Amino acid sequence: MISGILRNRRAQLFLLLAPGIGYLLMFFGGPLVSALIGSVRQEDGSFTLMFYERIFTRPSMIRGLTTSIYYGVMPVIVSLVVSVPLALLIRKNFPGRKLFSGLYKLPMAVPGIIVGLMVIVVFERGGFLDRLVAPLGLQLPHLVRDDWGIGVILASVWKQVPFMTLIITSAFAAIPEDIRYASRTLGASRLKTFVFVDVPLAMPGITAAILLTFIGSMGSYAIPDIVGPPTARPLSVLMVQDFNQGHFNQVYAIGMVLSLFAIGVLLFYYSLTSRIGPGQNRGDAA
User: Fold this and answer.
1) Biggest alpha carbon distance in the chain?
2) Whether the model pTM is above 0.85
3) Residue 269 pLDDT
């Protein structure tokens, strides 16, 4: 009797999970396996790791990998510095709050290629800001196609801040006000309450925002291609260049490296959140 009930529950669970699992296998697992096979197979069908070797031995590829990581990390740092205060501001009541809450999300609807062109128009030498400060005898530093990729970082931050702010705002909003009141009642200042209560409780949401922003910035193609320096091209740009030249095996290998890097960051995220999540707290209490 009991075994029959358990079998029925397992069958029901399998039927409930089947659509989601099937979708992942078809639209994620299938292309990933196909790319993996294409990255290790030559035209004659023989096995090779040559295309991966090129990524980690060719100077342009190594520079592309480090540039991709750089374009992933720097926008996250700058976006986080902007998004946390912005999320705290949105929680306050002030005149025009609803209008502001709608306007700050507009960059999410703007394509990356448009953002790159906007950066060129505004920050390029001879652009809008440069001409604006010219009567004062000032000149903007080189911000577009510069060696440090400042134009890429500016464009990525402008694009990613609303997305990160939206997630962090939701994370802070999910914290019960009673916890904050209890902290203040016990003598903690607003700053200490924020640092030792709000931030730890919102950390799963904050780390999720960091993860998604990092993956999006690292894999971006349009912005680095338009406003990035020509001497240091990220792997995403090199990948498209190889695709246009018909080097499909190399495209698969680059795609696999980027995917494995993203999966590694995702696993690190799950490891981190499991340590700071409710389950860990229960384990510590035990």
Assistant:
1) 88
2) no
3) 76
